[in-house]
């Protein structure tokens, strides 16, 4: 008697939530086809791909494909650049995004609040191809605005695309300009949900704006900050291909400070056509990122902080 009742409850539950299941279906299909089906291709990282034999009939080569990343003279440079830039982007990006979100939260007028939200989101919608030409418009050796200003000030023009020392700052500025607005809106969505009575009580106790920010706003934001940082740590061995490939205009002189694992593998793939090497690099990045997320999440839970992923 219990079984028919249980089945009836399951059917009623399914019918009740059927619209939600249908809404989730496109996203689930995307995850399956884009994220899970390609996992079968991880085996290519351990194969000496021969198209005459077919991918799955190619000879097994073990860890030979991974030697491309670790046995070359550029291994230290691309690893240093990838990790160094990502650490800088995580720390500086978090500080700027939180500061921007707090400033947005202080704008009481609805029109100006929405205006600034829209304004800071616009750079995120630009592709790196468009941004690369905007940057070139500022840094062009002959017609760039920066060199024009330097000449007006009586200074010598700078060959920006021939001087590698400037590019860590240029790439960092472009990354912050493009993504700070998007991350700020994510944090701002959390701030909107904070109970206003907390601020009212703090005002009655004599707390000014700074104390309200550091005693209420930042602690309430901390779970979201931790979650966003954990997600960023998982991609610390990945780099934004468009940023490091398009913005420097693929200039060979700058590769010492602009070459990362992703751009190095792409250039190697275009030169050598070695699919196995490219798959090995992706496999390595994914495994290391997964282990970093597990380790970071464990540290967060060990410290008993809110915001762990699982």
Describe the structure.
By secondary structure, the chain is an all-alpha fold. The chain has two domains: 1-62, no CATH class; 69-302, MetI-like fold, CATH 1.10.3720.10. The protein is 69% helix and 1% strand. The chain has 14 helices and two strands. A two-stranded antiparallel ribbon has the order 1-2. The protein starts with a helix and ends in an 8-residue tail after the last helix.
List strands and helices in order, with pairings:
Layout: H1 2-16, H2 18-36, E1 47-48, E2 59-60, H3 67-70, H4 75-105, H5 110-125, H6 128-139, H7 145-152, H8 167-192, H9 196-204, H10 209-233, H11 241-245, H12 255-258, H13 261-272, H14 275-302
Antiparallel strand pairs: 1-2
Q: Give the proportion of residues in helices.
A: 55-70%
Mean pLDDT: 86
Shape: globular
Secondary-structure element series: HHEEHHHHHHHHHHHH
Would you tell me which CATH topology of the largest domain applies? MetI-like fold
Name the strands of the widest sheet in spatial order.
1-2
The tally of helices reads 14
The total tally of domains equals 2
CATH architecture of the largest domain: Orthogonal Bundle
Strand content: under 5%
N-C termini distance: 39 Å
* Beta-strand segment tally: 2
The whole-angstrom Rg is 25 Å
CATH top level of the largest domain is: Mainly Alpha
